[in-house]
Design a protein that fits this description.
Layout (H helix, E strand, L loop, with lengths): L7 E7 L3 H12 L5 E4 L8 H4 L31 H14 L6 E2 L4 E7 L4 E6 L2 E10 L21 E4 L13 E5 L3 H10 L5 E5 L6 E2 L8 H9 L1 H23 L5 H15 L3 H7 L11 E2 L3 H5 L4 E4 L2 E5 L2 E4 L4 E3 L2 E4 L14 E2 L6 H4 L18 E3 L12 H22 L3 E5 L1 H15 L3 H4 L21 H7 L8 E5 L17
Helix pairs in contact: 1-11, 5-6, 11-14
Bound molecules: NADP nicotinamide-adenine-dinucleotide phosphate.
Length: 506
Amino acid sequence: MAEHEHEHVRVAVVGSGFGGLGAAVRLRREGITDFVVLERAGSVGGTWRDNSYPGCACDVPSHLYSFSFAPNPEWPRSFSGQEHIRAYLEHVTDLFGLRPHIRFDSEVKRMAWDAERLRWDIETSSGNLSADVVVSATGALSEPRLPDVPGLDTFPGKVFHSARWDHDYDLRGKRVAMIGTGASAIQIVPSIQPLVSRLTLFQRTPAWVLPRADRRISAAERALHRTLPFTTKLRRGLLWGIRELEIQAFTKHTGELRLVGQLAKRTMARAVKDPALRAKLTPDYRIGCKRILLSSTYYPALARPNVDVVGALSEVRGSTVVAADGTEAEVDAIVFGTGFHVTDMPIAERVVGADGRTLAEAWAGGMQALRGASAAGFPNWMTVVGPNTGLANSSMIYMIESQLNYLADYLRQLDVLGGRVALDARPSAVRAWNHQVQERMKRTVWNTGGCVSWYLDANGRNTTIWPGRTAEFRRETRRVDLAEYAVLRAASDRPRPTRENTGVTA
Ligand code: NAP
């Protein structure tokens, strides 16, 4: 393709979930309009588009689980459902005029760093382009994980994953195997239990579950938030502040979680009268080690007569599903609530860095990034919701907005440096950052609570969670420290083809 036909943009954002849309809004606010958002699906929303299973809702209150720059006085419930969160993201897309930037049905197949021209060459399912900077916002919950179960291919019935719910399949009167007891499964179980004839729940590890104080937000409250916007801010601030205080119990004073464990046990005892079932549902690791789940309907559903709780799914023989404890059940459908590829960021296989290695190869020993954003050898590539930016008890949207501050400063620094220039995270800076993160991780309940969770990678390293208060992360990502980066300049140092950033500050 001749050079003049080649499309080049200042920034290519990958994904249009909370991370990608947030990045797009931030770019526009920085005065940058020369960017595209590449989205493999046909609409925005990311994980909130893909997860439409019955009962899907957020377990972080909506007034906190939303963008600070797009408050929504109309949230219908304290923990709003998926359809409201998805509608919110559609609304944000329109409100900030993002649609012209979004390329739907454009799946990134490969992106490779061109060290000579200092740009990313990007191949997508809808064509090729190049970009000065890539913002990868593919999220941690995008690629469903299915366990490798012997005989699954012999199953004659219906099979689907929680994030790929088949709404055309009628579960009424069916015998259903639900696999997993994570945040998705515990929302699905109470939603489908009244419909199905028999529900067999395959539990590998019981979860700690606390009641969910969900309620309708009254018309009066909504009117108050609409007319006095500072009340929405106040509500958000309170929700955030409480979680900032709570986090110490996970990271430093883990003994404080004992009381929370007692509350969880009491919640279970109230709903589950059968001692054998209670014993099965009682975790043998400390509360907080895995994500604490919130539900007021899960235990009551398990106590219903059409539900059996059995061990992990170990085998499928035709229409018979077999649990590790030997229990067998004949079923019409298998629903996998078995989570996502979190610690092995699937896009990493498609990102080829300066030395020709993929990011997946560079991260073979475990994901690590500088300030959760950039990786050594992958200049001008940053990720939102990157390594060690996840949270156990608060809103990821707050973390995303911190990462967007970092992105904005990164772009400003490139402008200040001027010409064709790129920043490459220094390996020493990446090491130092991760050393500090892992040192802090040592005392946390996630590492010491005696469980195996998706927070930990194949090597047992916690590469997912931020081991501190979210305010600390915000401080650490306010500015890009140029000492942590090598500045790369193109030999020709020619000016960029398009440069529309008018918001340059020194
Ligand atoms: P998940 O937390 O990874 O849970 C997967 C579940 O599948 C675990 O209980 C796991 O057991 C189980 N499992 C795997 N193989 C199994 C087998 N062979 N037999 C029986 N069980 C098996 O996945 P998720 O529930 O989809 O949640 C994914 C993420 O989405 C989490 O971050 C979650 O917090 C988030 N989420 C959030 C909300 C929200 O309200 N904000 C709602 C849904 C999901 P082990 O515990 O033994 O590994």
